Amino acid sequence: xRARPIVFTVYDGIQSLDVNGPLEVFAAADEAVGGGAYDxxxxxxxxxxxxxxxxxxxxxxxxxxxxxxxxxxxxxPGGDGTVHAVADPDLIAAVADLAGRSRRVTSVCSGAFxxxxxxxxxxxxxxxxxxxxxxxxxxxxxxxxxxxPIFVRDGNVSTSAGVTTGMDLALALVEEDLGNEVALAVxxxxxxxLRRPGSQSQFSSHLSTQLADRxxxxxxxxxxxxxxxxxxxxxxxxxxxxxxxxxxTRVFLxxxxxxxxxxxxxxxxxxxxxxxxxxxxxxxxVAVTAGFGSTETLxxxxxxxxxxxxxxxxxxxxxxx
Length: 321
Hints:
Largest sheet: 7 strands, mixed
Mean pLDDT: 89
Strand content: 5-15%
Number of strands: 11
Strand order of the largest sheet: 5-2-1-6-7-11-10
Distance between the termini: 53 Å
Shape: globular
Helix content: 40-55%
Number of helices: 14
Low-confidence stretches: 203-208
């Protein structure tokens, strides 16, 4: 198997984790198969090292002009320096040229602005960091900007929300290239979620359930996450998926490792955790939002999943400076 060329384009003011995170995923995958899977290069316009927004110096392998003719995956990271990068006609032209020679084109965080400036996102669905999603939509009206998912894949172009979500996207690409076992090995080594759904909200950090292989169940998982206050009984879910209740339970056990009821409870607890962390909503309001029938039901589920009561959990955050 010939090594797949992976090219990272970098510039001053880049977010170092947008580079290092996905790079470590590809490097770990290469090591997991004994080498020969990926050939990784970090390139800048002039071939000089760049300084990340944190002040960290990032070593560069050479100028973009020296990039291999055929590229497997182009990665365009983001960062504070994106503001100046999108105004650099040489960089934008270079990215457009590299994209034309790439099997896959990806961005991390505000790197989506560079892809958009190069015309690579026109007519496509894309995401970026939630804090700049509105600006991306305003500056590039031909781009269908979705601010919620951790990453979006539209054809051969993928965009991610930034920082750790770039690693989620890279892991999904590794699984696509090298299979589930290699992706699992990488996830275990780097302590990552395996196949965290791209549709998962940027604001969710605790949901540990893996994404199912079957499209119908994947879609159901996404729907459940968006409708936690709805009727999520096994009967209702089976009807929505077009399965019998028995078959749905069997598929959930095979694909996800737990029953539909157990899965729904964990999703609802995850929603409750986020509300407790991010809002001052009363506990009964949190229970309603998360889909629990009462505060007592929420309390029991929360203690079972998290190990403490909702009030104790919130106290950990309100006590922080």
